[in-house]
Specification:
This protein is mainly alpha-helical and 225 residues long. Helices cover 56% and strands 11% of the residues. It contains nine helices and three strands. The longest helix is centred in the middle third of the chain and has 22 residues, at 90-111.
């Protein structure tokens, strides 16, 4: 058994990530209501992503299949969401998050079609934005292999592209328990959105930051202070 769990990204947060924390709180609240069956069955069913193209296109982002599903997604959202939310206006972040969640859901419906719940498509979208803004920043992770454990760090581009590759192999292997197409769609859409946000100047980038993908593509590194 090998587990790799990110717990920290090496970025300088310039703003309060209030929008991401609010999204996390709402997601946990709605998921917990469903877990304890406080929510009526009809309300729960209306938030499951299906081909009906109704409220569930956005509602599925707040729902989860169980505690491990919820905890894992919220950990990833805390790590990557705070980094991106801390680098852009909260309203823009919230709009990007939900737009990417909807886009990932539509990709899943178009290429898979099975019922789905969970925020992972939106989270992978934020990871795509992270890849555009902070490709070289390190991501620190806990690792567990059999009876051994430790911590290590990876460049953002390497770890995120490894996750992307895992989803591609998941599609090829037709793994039915994970919405791989939502992950692929979210990450791809997030990367494109991240580049667009950089071009629009909606992400705070400073001279002491590592190069963004725009800097790397144009072979320009930020000037030293």
């Amino acid at each position: 058994m090998f587990l790799l769990i990110p717990y920290e990204v090496r970025t300088l947060i310039q703003r309060s990530p209030w929008a991401n924390l609010a999204i996390m709180a709402a997601t946990v609240a709605i998921s917990v209501l469903a877990f304890f069956e406080v929510m009526p069955d009809a309300a729960y069913d209306s938030l499951v992503l299906t081909r009906s193209f109704d409220l569930a296109v956005i509602g599925h982002i707040f729902m989860h299949a169980g505690w491990l599903h919820l905890i894992g997604n919220m950990l990833m959202l805390f790590v990557f969401g705070n980094a991106i939310c801390g680098a852009m206006p909260g309203g823009w972040y919230a709009g990007a998050y939900f737009a990417l969640g909807i886009f990932a859901g539509l990709v899943h419906l178009g290429l898979d079609g099975s019922p789905a719940v969970g925020a992972s498509g939106a989270i992978y979208g934020i990871m795509g934005v992270y890849l555009a803004v902070y490709p070289q920043n390190r991501i620190n992770c806990f690792w567990i292999f059999l009876i051994r454990a430790g911590v290590t760090g990876f460049p953002g581009w390497l770890l995120i592209l490894c996750w992307f590759a895992a989803d591609v192999f998941g599609v090829i292997g037709k793994s039915s328990d994970v919405a791989h197409w939502a992950h692929i769609g979210g990450l791809t859409g997030g990367f494109v959105m991240g580049v667009a946000l950089l071009k629009l100047g909606k992400v705070d980038v400073y001279d002491y930051d590592n190069p963004t993908v725009l800097d790397l593509f144009t072979r320009r590194a930020p000037a030293l202070p």
